[in-house]
Amino acid sequence: MVLQGPPIHNLDVSIVTPRYQITGQLETVGRAFTYINNEKRNSFSLHDVSLAPLVGSGPLQSFSRPHVILRRSEIALLYFVSAEVRASVQTLRRRELLVAYTPVAVCRAHFHMADEANVNDFLEDIASVLLPITEVQVFPLNDLPAPFPTEPELLLIGRSYLEFYHPA
């Protein structure tokens, strides 16, 4: 009998970091959301990547690479292009409509939390580094160099980039 590991997927994504917008294919093993939030995983492989600086006045222009490694801690916003992948992301049942401020965008969205959670400190009880938010409205603080959805039904937001938030 031959043992097989979980399947490897290359998922189309659009990612915004504090300095770059990145499009390409995120390599995952098994379920995407479980893989990206594995506490032992600090970086990801991206394939067929296009990178564009968020600030256009610098010397660095947009460029492409066949493969880059992205540190998870740099992800402010992550969008899965595939509706099937977005539908596979499980969220907690209770949700609160909040406005969240990050260095790259303001997001008005439903944040998912445990039934007993308090809006003031719900982040303390969530282990995920990348939080799923739903029914999102994205208001970029600057023009993004490539298309990015402004009203995705699901988006992942980097918890370390949540500067502050309040009820909508």
Radius of gyration: 16 Å
Shape: globular
Largest sheet: 10 strands, antiparallel
Question: What is the helix fraction of residues, given as a range?
Answer: under 10%
Low-confidence stretches: none
- Overall strand count: 10
Q: Into how many domains do the coordinates divide?
A: 2
Order of helices and strands: EEHEEEHEEEEE
Strand content: over 45%
Distance between the termini: 55 Å
Structure class: mainly beta
Strand order within the widest sheet?
A: 4-3-2-1-5-9-8-7-6-10
Number of helices: 2
Mean pLDDT: 93
Short description:
By secondary structure, the protein is mainly beta. The protein folds into two domains: 8-83, SH3 type barrels; 85-167, no CATH class. It has two helices and ten strands.
Describe the protein's architecture and organization.
- The protein has 168 residues and is mainly β.
- The protein has 2 domains: 8-83, SH3 type barrels; 85-167, no CATH class.
- The chain contains 2 helices and 10 strands, in the order E-E-H-E-E-E-H-E-E-E-E-E.
- The protein has helices spanning 32-36, 83-88, and strands at residues 8-16, 20-29, 43-53, 63-71, 77-80, 94-101, 105-113, 130-140, 154-158, 164-167.
- The protein has a 10-stranded antiparallel beta sheet with strand order 4-3-2-1-5-9-8-7-6-10.
- Strand 6 and strand 7 (105-113) form a beta hairpin.
- The chain is globular, with a radius of gyration of 16 Å.
- The termini are far apart.
- 27% of the residues are buried.
List keywords for this structure.
2 helices, SH3 type barrels, 10 strands, about 170 residues, single chain
